[in-house]
Specification:
- Chain B: One of its GO terms (molecular function) is iron ion binding.
- Chain B: InterPro entries: 2Fe-2S-bd, 2Fe-2S-bd_dom_sf, 2Fe-2S_ferredoxin-like_sf, 2Fe-2S_ferredoxin-type, 2Fe2S_fd_BS, Ald_Oxase/xanthine_DH-like, Beta-grasp_dom_sf, CO_DH_flav_C.
- Chain B: Pfam families: CO_deh_flav_C (PF03450), FAD_binding_5 (PF00941), Fer2 (PF00111), Fer2_2 (PF01799).
- Chain B: It comes from Hymenobacter busanensis.
- The complex is a heterodimer of chains A (771) and B (487).
- Chain A has four domains: 190 residues, Aldehyde oxidase/xanthine dehydrogenase, a/b hammerhead (Aldehyde Oxidoreductase, domain 3, Alpha-Beta Complex); 151 residues, Aldehyde oxidase/xanthine dehydrogenase, molybdopterin binding domain (Aldehyde Oxidoreductase, domain 4); 235 residues, 2-Layer Sandwich (Aldehyde Oxidoreductase, domain 4); 140 residues, 2-Layer Sandwich (Aldehyde Oxidoreductase, domain 4).
- Chain A is built from 19 helices and 30 strands.
- Chain A starts with 5 loop residues before the first helix and ends in a 24-residue tail after the last helix.
- Chain B is an alpha+beta fold.
- Chain B folds into three domains: 145 residues, Beta-grasp domain (Ubiquitin-like (UB roll)); 86 residues, Orthogonal Bundle (DNA polymerase, domain 1), CATH 1.10.150.120; 114 residues, CO dehydrogenase flavoprotein, C-terminal domain (Enolase-like, domain 1, 2-Layer Sandwich), CATH 3.30.390.50.
- Chain B is built from 20 helices and 18 strands.
- In chain B, helix 2 runs antiparallel to helix 5.
- Chain B starts with a strand and ends with a helix.
- The chains are: A alpha+beta (771), B alpha+beta (487).
- Chains A and B meet through helix 1, helix 3, helix 17 and helix 19 of A and helix 2, helix 3, helix 5 and helix 19 of B.
- Bound molecules: flavin-adenine dinucleotide (FAD) and FE2/S2 (inorganic) cluster (2 copies).
- The site of flavin-adenine dinucleotide has 33 residues of chain B, from strand 6, helix 9, helix 14, helix 15 and helix 16.
């Protein structure tokens, strides 16, 4: 089945935030962001802006009726800067004008007197100065200190990864109206309606019951609208609350890029011990996470880095420590993979470095250390239903790893300028919110008297196809055509206290709730049928809208059944609550059972480097992925392809460059490059690994949102291998993304010092660009 | 008066000619199918089709990013949005292909892809490659493009049928690619043109009449495709008086002159340059070279003059034509003309040897002769739809293992696009061997002054220029030496 929203999308009829018909009297908002990354806000000069054409009002921290606080995990983030600014672009004032261009023009007239304070952009510097968002955390398994003695080889090094801009094509935004009774209704482009509601209520000094959040769909989220949508929702609501007029706030792309947080850059130190036969024996790793100026979701992201520190390998002795470091960048946030990719990049780097030093291929190490049932993850959960070996072997067989490697080697033998590299990227990703309490969801299902069905959940549609999945679950459970089912907007008055659409768990959690509600309705309807038509309840079912009794058509169908039930005063609405069973985590011990299940897969990635120009192509990605029992294979394949390409982008061309003043230099789509049509691999094979799925997965179809992103890491190592094919004496540092610049600098690194040249972080760079 | 067809309606906007087509369509006509992702031409979410009547009486449809299309450039044309191609019920074959292949997820980029592909079906070649090129200006963050490639390839077979049909447009209408009103467009645009001859005359001399010129004009701009000006100063252009040059018949031509030179009208678009048979004959690799310049919709808008006058140090066409020693004809407001070598246009960062009222009208150059070679190199973070970190062009005459003449240019390595005068002079008369090239690089390194920015550190740009210098020779004389001998 296709994505049910697709027809509206291709006709241009699907409604996004900026498409909502504008109410009369709507004010348009624009945000004045701090020009400095850190300082004491002495005064704001708003006079010129107030007098600008069309300006109705300018709001600052003083205008907030409630609490000036939007921090989720840690209350450390003001909505509008009060006494201090903490990052460039931090919202300081909100201009409300009659038109959007007027509001934008007025913002340009605002100036601020800010006493500069020292700026930190480097997480290690922050850590050294004690600037931590939360206390550090350490996961432990076995006794690495004792294990080093047994290791035949010990490899040490550093790995760094850059951040990643979400680049949802629809920028952030919200549209708020004052409602009857002194409340506000906010249309928000958010993955977390409840977060927007909770923080807006806090900011307005009112109850959550007076704040209604409604979401139709997002033009992309990828984590960037999980916590970070709150600012814009709350600002629009503040405007509407204060002026009693509708207020619309849609960020321009430049503002969106410089004001919002991104995937976390990390810098990490690793030490890896191996036995003579390439078994991983001990691993110590320290992660320094660049959290930006406020906690946002950083502590949770940090935790997931620890959970995925060993990727899909079993290492008996592990000590993994993580610091969440406060810097003066925009607060970094959720992004598909949520810290997992950063953790995996370090272990893969350590393995690559070991391979360099031992003169073996990295995949010889990888394949010897894959997880097996009965082992234990460093966080205490037992490895069960493990498909690490299975997916590796399937990939090996289908794509003939050895033969492929031989072809690459042969190519390199005869090609002086173009060089190829092959890398294997196996993954293991845990499914669930690691904060156990968040693994709950509700669904509200109405059957209308004509037999049509309305379903409300806490899930937000952002392209991942959750609407289609929910409709499928409802239709299958009720035994009716999906055409009868409509998925309603996500609205906090219909489904309350929701978890955000995140952690790949949305379809599982909300789908289970829909399934439960629909089961209950089905039972109720069939009991009514049994009574009404004097049939035996046992053996009654609904298939293709026909009621069957012991497999034979009974004298009623869906429409009749619903109608007669209504007249018999049967309740045709149901609200169900689902909480994932058996989850727990004890943070004092850093042990527990945090994940409902794990998803596995293995990708083979080939890249070709042009040693003349330093450019490269990722030629082919061929992968085997553990889908469980997919019931929407088209949508799930789309998640793999899209996630993979996002991961490739992060590892290759997507380079966020901040200068020492905390100013974003890659501040437009002309300087921050995401993959285009021509940069995706020519060959992209996705093989479905048939596995039984998992009972905690909706209809046994495993979660598919985040895991594929991590296949993209393979591109980094494939390019690195290609560089080394040209320059075997060079050991490129582990510094993602592997931009053409880093490739070229590595290819021509001075012969005498084979150590790689410095990364391209624009320390000396002042100009953003010379266009 | 500014007037054009928006889908099947004749519209006469009262906005200023420098407003964007996008804002007019979304916020004045309330057609919200067209999306906004960047307002900088870089995402394609706002793609529309712009149809222009051709001398042969047919309408040629090109994709453009409406966020950078000055409303004035719509004058007399047929503007098509997603609302203008959708049928009352059901899906067009393009829409159907995208749905069937899973080519839409969040859907925000989708109307842009639909328009680009519809444009491809209206006029593109029936090959997979041409289909993909049609969507090279559309960014999708969700799908990873594979499904969109599949959708595109699916259309190729249908387009082969189109080519076999006796009447292309009739076939497309019959198959539901576009609604029937498209068949009236040639006649309607012809009628519009007749009505607006006077206006066309008016814009040749001055600006288009401003319908409600109540605001004081702050400045006056010459406007080509708008792909630089509307990125850099959209707000100013909106408030300004503009002189529209885009698509101006007197400024759009590519011809060979009797002395064997090629003469280009200044408003020739990059895509027309790329499509020119004459140019392709003279530059056999022109299509690949210019494929590295922006994207299909941007090339449909971008003019050669705009590239020169924008004076970006990494302007691709500027670099291309610097190596060809192009000569410019400039004309001031009084109609006086003068000639100026392109190499003398640049004085400093965005400083031009040009009066504010001087218009670039013509570009003339000697194409490479049979015994000469020409090469263009560009490296950017993303190969396509990206600005160069460094670019370079070379025109070389080599005979008997000796470089007779060399003309090299380099972009991204100084405050202006550079003709590498000293390097070129150094190479002339030298034997073509690794020593010469290494020595030439030494000279080039003295001549350039790159700075570190978001497109690369200084060290990288210096290294890259060296590599591109070598690449010119390795591309054309691969038998002579190997890369390994040079580095
Ligand atoms: C997404 C995107 C990608 C791009 N990629 C590239 C790229 O890869 N390579 C590249 O080189 N450029 C690129 N550009 C820049 C731009 O497209 C080119 O420089 C283009 O050639 C500019 O032409 P235009 O007609 O659109 O200029 P306009 O914006 O209309 O004008 C630019 C300047 O030239 C002046 N001008 C225009 N015509 C004349 C004339 N006849 N006489 C005197 N002055 C005139 C204008 O007043 C203005 O100052 C890109 C732009 C965008 C938006
Ligand atoms: S909005 Fe991105 S290209 Fe126009
Ligand atoms: S479908 Fe979301 S950006 Fe293309």
């Amino acid at each position: 089945m296709h994505n049910l929203d697709a027809a509206g999308h291709v006709r241009g009829e699907s409604q996004y935030l900026d498409d909502i018909p504008v109410q009369r009297g709507t004010l348009h908002a624009a945000v004045y962001g701090s020009p400095l990354a850190h300082g004491k806000l002495l005064s704001l000069n708003l006079e010129a802006a107030r007098r600008a054409p069309g300006v109705v009002r300018i709001l600052t921290a003083q205008d907030i009726p409630g609490e000036n606080q939007i921090g989720g995990i840690v209350p450390d983030e003001e909505l509008l800067a009060g006494s201090h600014v903490h990052f460039q672009g931090m919202p300081v004032a909100l201009v409300l004008a009659e038109t959007e261009p007027q509001a934008r023009a007025a913002v340009k007239l605002i100036t601020a007197d800010i006493e500069p304070l020292p700026i930190i952009t480097d997480p290690r510097e922050a850590q050294a100065k004690g600037e931590l968002i939360v206390p550090p955390r350490t996961f432990r398994l076995g006794d690495p200190a004792a294990a080093w003695a047994e290791c035949a080889h010990i490899i040490e090094g550093t790995a760094e990864n850059g951040g990643q801009e979400h680049l949802y094509i629809e920028t952030q935004g919200a549209y708020a109206y004052p409602t009857d009774g002194g409340g506000v209704r906010v249309h928000s482009s958010t993955q977390g309606p409840t977060a927007v509601q909770r923080h807006t209520a806090r900011v307005l000094g009112t109850g959550m019951h007076k704040v209604e959040i409604d979401v139709t769909r997002l033009g992309g989220g990828f984590g960037g609208k999980e916590d970070q949508a709150t600012t814009w929702g709350a600002l629009a609501a503040l405007g509407a609350f204060v002026t009693k007029k509708p207020v619309k706030l849609v960020l321009g792309r430049h503002d969106d890029l410089r004001m919002t947080g991104k995937r976390h850059p990390y810098t990490s130190d690793f030490k890896l011990g191996l036995s003579a036969d390439l078994k991983l024996l001990a691993y110590e790793v320290t992660f320094y996470q660049n959290a930006g100026a406020a906690a946002d979701l950083s502590p949770a992201v940090l935790e997931r880095t620890l959970f995925h520190a060993c990727n899909t390998y079993f290492i008996p002795n592990v000590r993994a420590t993580a610091y969440s470091c406060r810097t003066h960048l925009p607060p970094n946030t959720a992004f598909r993979g949520f810290g997992g990719p950063q953790g995996m990049f370090v272990i893969e780097s350590a393995i690559a470095k070991a391979a360099d030093e031992l003169g073996v291929l990295a995949w010889e190490i990888q394949r010897r250390n894959l997880l097996q049932d009965g082992q234990v993850f460093p966080y205490g959960q037992r490895v069960e239903d493990c498909n690490a070996e299975l997916s590796w072997q399937a990939a090996d067989q289908k794509f003939e790893l050895k033969k492929w490697q031989a072809e690459v080697d042969a190519f390199n033998q005869q090609s002086p300028v173009r060089k190829r590299g092959l890398a294997v990227m196996p993954i293991c990703f845990g499914i669930s919110f690691t904060k156990t309490a968040m693994n709950q969801a509700r669904a509200l299902v109405h059957i209308y008297t004509d037999g049509s069905v309305g379903v409300s959940t806490g899930a937000v549609e952002m392209g991942q196809g959750v609407n289609t999945k929910m409709i499928q679950v409802a239709a299958r459970t009720l035994g009716i055509s999906p055409k009868r089912v409509r998925l309603e907007t996500t609205n906090t008055t219909r489904v309350a206290n929701t978890s955000p659409s995140a952690a790949s768990a949305t379809a599982d959690l909300n789908g289970k709730a829909v399934e439960m509600a629909c089961r209950e309705l089905r039972t109720r309807l069939l009991r009514h049928a049994a009574e009404d038509l004097k049939m035996n309840y046992e053996g009654l079912e609904i298939q293709d809208e026909q009621v069957l009794a012991a497999g034979k058509p009974a004298e009623t169908n869906w429409e009749k059944l619903v109608s007669t039930a209504y007249w018999k005063r049967v309740n045709l609405s149901e609200n169900a609550h689902y909480a994932t069973p058996d989850l727990w985590f004890d943070q004092t011990q850093e042990k527990g059972h945090p994940f409902a299940y794990h998803v596995y897969g293995t990708a083979l990635v080939q890249a070709t480097v042009d040693a003349m120009r330093g450019t490269y192509d990722v030629d082919a990605v061929r992968l085997v992925h553990d889908f469980g029992q997919s019931f929407t294979p088209g949508i799930d394949r789309g998640q793999i392809e899209g996630g993979l390409v996002q991961g490739l982008g992060w590892m290759t061309m997507e380079e966020l460059i901040y200068n020492q003043d905390g100013r974003l230099l890659s501040n437009a789509l002309s300087t921050y490059k995401v993959p285009d049509l021509y940069s995706v691999p020519k060959v992209l094979d996705v093989e479905f690994l048939e596995t039984p799925g998992h009972p905690n997965a909706i209809l046994r179809a495993k979660a598919v949102g985040e895991p594929p992103l991590m296949y993209g890491l393979g591109a980094y190592f494939a390019i690195r291998n290609a560089v080394r094919a040209f320059r075997p004496d060079v050991r490129p540092e582990f510094s993602a993304p592997f931009t053409p610049e880093k490739v070229l600098l590595n290819l021509y690194a001075a012969r005498e010092s084979a150590a790689a040249p410095a990364a391209s972080q624009a320390s000396g760079a002042e100009a953003s660009v010379r266009n | 008066m500014l007037q054009f067809y928006l889908n099947d309606q004749l519209v006469r906007p009262t906005l200023r000619a420098g407003s964007t087509l996008l804002d007019y369509v979304r916020y004045h006509q309330h057609l919200t199918g067209t999306k906004i992702g960047c307002r900088e031409g870089d995402c394609g979410a706002c793609t529309m089709l712009v149809g222009e009547l051709q001398p042969d009486g047919a309408v040629r449809y090109q994709s453009m990013t409406s966020c950078l299309t000055p409303l004035g450039n719509a004058h007399g044309r047929h503007i098509v949005t997603v609302e203008g191609i959708s049928q009352p019920a059901g899906l067009t074959p393009v829409q159907e292909a995208i749905v069937a292949e899973g080519g839409t997820q969040c859907g925000f980029c989708t109307p842009g892809f639909v328009m680009s592909l519809t444009g491809h079906c209206l006029g593109g070649q029936a090959t997979d490659e041409a289909g993909r090129a049609a969507i090279d200006g559309n960014i999708c963050r969700c799908t990873g493009y594979k499904s969109l490639e599949r959708a595109t390839d699916r259309l190729t077979a249908q387009l082969l049928e189109r080519d076999a049909a006796p009447e292309r447009l009739a076939w497309l209408v019959e198959q539901g690619f576009v609604p029937a009103y498209f068949q009236q467009m040639p006649a309607q645009l012809a009628e519009l043109r007749a009505e607006t001859v006077a206006d066309v005359a008016a814009r040749t001399g001055g600006q288009l009449t401003e319908p409600n010129g109540t605001e004081t004009t702050v400045a006056s701009y010459l406007l080509g495709g708008g792909t630089d000006l509307l990125v850099q100063r959209a707000d100013d252009v909106l408030a300004a008086e503009v002189q529209l040059l885009y698509g101006h018949a007197d400024r759009c031509f590519i011809r060979e002159t009797p002395d064997g030179r090629i003469s280009l009208g200044a408003a020739t678009t990059v895509e027309d340059l790329r499509g020119s048979e004459l140019m392709q004959r003279r530059f056999p690799r022109l299509r690949q070279h210019l494929k590295l310049v922006s994207s299909t919709p941007i090339r449909n808008m971008a003019t050669v003059a705009g590239n020169f006058v924008n004076a970006s140090p990494i302007g691709d066409l500027t670099i291309f034509f610097l190596a060809l020693d192009a000569e410019l004809t400039l004309q001031d407001a009084a109609g006086r003309t003068r000639q100026l070598p392109l190499r003398e246009l640049y004085r400093g960062y965005k400083q031009l040897n040009r009066q504010p009222d001087e218009q670039l009208v013509e570009i003339s150059f000697r194409p490479p002769a049979a015994h000469e070679v020409f090469n263009f190199e560009k490296v950017s973070k993303r190969t396509h739809l990206d600005i160069a970190s460094v670019n370079s062009a070379a025109r070389l005459r080599v005979a008997d293992g000796r470089i007779q003449e060399a003309h090299l240019s380099g972009g991204g390595v100084g405050p202006t696009p550079l003709y590498l005068r000293r390097t070129s002079a150094f190479l002339a008369g030298k034997d073509l061997n690794p020593d010469t090239l290494r020595a030439a690089n030494e000279v080039a390194q003295q001549e350039i002054s790159p700075i570190g920015d978001a497109r690369g550190t200084e060290a990288y740009k210096r290294l890259l220029l060296r590599q591109l210098l070598f690449a010119h020779f390795l591309e054309h004389f691969p038998a002579q030496f190997a890369l390994q001998e040079l580095v």
